[in-house]
TrEMBL record:
Keywords of this entry: ATP-binding, Kinase, Lectin, Nucleotide-binding, Receptor, Serine/threonine-protein kinase, Transferase
Pfam families in the record: Pkinase (PF00069)
Domain Protein kinase: 17-294
InterPro entries xrefs: Kinase-like_dom_sf, L-type_Lectin-RKs, Prot_kinase_dom, Protein_kinase_ATP_BS, Ser/Thr_kinase_AS
SUPFAM superfamilies: Protein kinase-like (PK-like) (SSF56112)
GO molecular function: ATP binding; carbohydrate binding; non-membrane spanning protein tyrosine kinase activity; protein serine/threonine kinase activity
Record-given protein name: L-type lectin-domain containing receptor kinase IX.1
EC numbers, comma separated: 2.7.10.2, 2.7.11.1
Enzyme class of the recorded protein, top EC level: transferase
Top-level taxon in the UniProt lineage: Eukaryota
Family to which this protein belongs: Belongs to the protein kinase superfamily.
Residue numbers binding ATP: K46
Amino acid sequence: MPRRFAYKELVAATNGFADDRRLGEGGYGRVYRGFLSDSVRVVAVKRIFSDVEDSEKIFSNEVKIISRLMHRNLVQFMGWCHEQGELLLVFEYMVNGSLDTHLFGSRRTLTWGVRYKIALGVVRALQYLHEDAVQCVLHRDIKSGNVLLDTDFNTKVSDFGMAKLVDPRLRTQKTKLVGTYGYLAPEYVKEGRASKESDMYGFGVLALEIACGMRTYQDRENNHVPLTNWVWKQYEVGNVLNAADKGLNDDYDVNEMTCLLTVGLWCTLHDHKKRPKAEQVINVLKQGAPLPNLFTDMRA
């Protein structure tokens, strides 16, 4: 069960939040590696910036939501600390860091089998959040930087600072626009309505990044073309495998690659009503259901 940590305990664990303990930094805070004195366990301590707008709201929101969640593909929340003006969250430590460093960083070593397992883990986490949790949770910031990997490269979805509990009577929730450029569904950007479908859009972009080994917003063929548009062009001419990551040197399962690329496009259809639910994606990725024909669901 998550517990309250004393501030001095976390200061000691991180050696005073030393720079050599820093694991990473996001828009709302920094994350440090820590060693708890009462055990041999290594933890990750998230220190939320106090000068960020709504920092207390972000902190309390993450504590409230993730405290009630438990799934093998969600990062384990261990506790919190709110003392001396500090807002600290404690999580299990993920040895292999975040997915983006493996896809786009210097250590591009993920085999195809591991990539496919990671994609399945993310969509299983979304299935739990959307359908199986006590109350539906919209993550609202699905991206490669928020997918952590343990020793065996098992998926652990993290960062619930922007997550939102959904009133079960409502299909969508009108909210302040949050998230990361490149992963945001068009209807969410336009109308500010978060939904399961907008979460699935973020997963679709992530699925394409995993399959293509490219960022959603990087230059391609000397043009600033969104990854979704580029993959669509390959799909439309019947050569979707041309979008597969060249760094894999064709060392991948053709059926699985086709599934993941097609699922990525399916989840990013402009018409949110035509996007699949997480359960449908799982069935396709496990090859227990046929691939959709996206020409019949072409983008509006």
